[in-house]
Amino acid sequence: MYDQGEFNIGSIGKCDLEARHIVELMNWHESFSVGVQIIDDQHQHLLILINELIRAVNTHQEDEVLDKILHAALAYTEEHFKTEEELLKIHPQFMAHCASHRRFTNNISRLVVDFTNNKADVAVKLVNELTNWLYNHILKSDIDYFGELGYRPRDTKDDFEARLHLVTQKVKVLIVEDSPSQRLLLKRNLETAGFEVLEACDGAEALSILEANFDLHLVITDISMPIMDGYGLVGAIRDKHIPSVYIIVVTDSSDRESVIKSFQLGANDFITKPIFPPEMHLRLRNGMNLLRLESQDELIFAMAKLADCRSPETGKHLDRVQSFSRLLGRQLILSCPELGMTESIAADIARFSPLHDIGKVAIPDNILNKPGKLTQEEFELMKDHAKIGGDLISSILRKTPSRSLRFAFELTMYHHEKWDGSGYPLGLSGKDIPIAARIMAVADVYDALTSERVYKKAFSREEARAIIVKASGSHLDPLLVDAFEILEEKFHQLREELQD
């Protein structure tokens, strides 16, 4: 484990309490993961406590939350250290790690004893204690220890310094408002909440700022403004295809027509005057969550296209199998509740379905695009794409534990398994084949049957339906074939709408 020295965040504790500096809020980033979900969840819980205390200190409201946070911090240490020490006990420096846990617990306990004294002083000391723990223990020692035990990749000093930057990196918000006083009020409130605020007095200025800041994805805009109003701004952002911008429109509570018009032009959300700050913060957080999901979806599709673009089976193939998978997953919720399918599971399976053939990047072009029937030797090489894709995603899954990513692994690795056990790569059968792969198999077979390939013509609607029904219990899961029959009309409509 390399020597980084100790990072000290304690400047606030040394400053005059009557002229305290504003302390920056902390952000969680995926790179902070130790590779164990329960530990990551506990670390994120501590981060929430830290930010709650920082907000209170910054606004001189520590008396209202200090007692709660002190006791929550003690509860965190008891639960977290018990969980972490069980996982780390095989590490050669386990005892030293436990000693650091005991020191932290003792420091928090001393602050509880001092609680009856100056609460503001105790609050500042607690901010220092918790943030130093975040920087020196969670972002440094924990990641090193779990990396050395194989839960996550080994770290470098550059990685550590990058995390220090990420933990205080602010999310940008653009306020578009022609009233200077209203802009100032919004700016102060959002900066206190930990955002970096940019300002524009009209839509035209806002567009220039957006085009100059590629990492700006949140916009709060008024409607009535000179030069270019809010409607014009929303329409221009969507017309210019400025990527991944979440737009919140500010309206009067009685003006429903402006809300409808804003949504028609492409706004994502609205908030009414007078603005209630906690509501605005929640709407911004919802926007950030949505943008994060959208960016992940774009990455998934981009990865899938790498494989798909090498094959003549391009066009709308990925869009179709994703739509078919979504339909099948949702139908199982209704017709087969015993399978435990939920809306979120169905959405995750559909979301990752475009990755099913990503292993084809490793298949030679002369096999992938051969116009005639493959030889047995060529077919054996073609079959490797399932395991290649599954192994690729498995390597990511081991570093980034995720239920969602497990579905990606399962549908990529096993979508060529058959219900009767005659498939590949492992020859799984029946319910041993994961449900994500069984869904993917029906979606992929239907699209293959109804699409023209270099080696065949497209089958008719009736022929495709008959082939799938006949494959029930041999190639395909009978329950999913039943679901397909219920959905066949919708499958056909989607096939017509998403032509290559």
| Number of helical stretches of at least 4 residues | 19
Which sequence of SSEs, written as H and E, runs from N to C? Answer: HHHHHHEHEHEHEHEHHHHHHHHH
CATH architecture of the largest domain: Orthogonal Bundle
Question: Which range best describes the helical content: under 10%, 10-25%, 25-40%, 40-55%, 55-70% or over 70%?
Answer: 55-70%
Radius of gyration: 28 Å
Structural class: mainly alpha
Average residue pLDDT: 83
* Topology-level CATH name of the largest domain: Hypothetical protein af1432
Shape from CA axes?
globular
Query: In CATH, what is the class of the largest domain?
Result: Mainly Alpha
* CATH homology superfamily of the largest domain: Hypothetical protein af1432
- β-strand amount: 5-15%
Please indicate the count of domains.
3
* Biggest sheet overview: 5 strands, parallel
Span from first to last CA? 54 Å
E-strand count: 5
Task: Point out poorly predicted stretches.
Answer: 1-21
Give the strand line-up of the largest sheet. 2-1-3-4-5
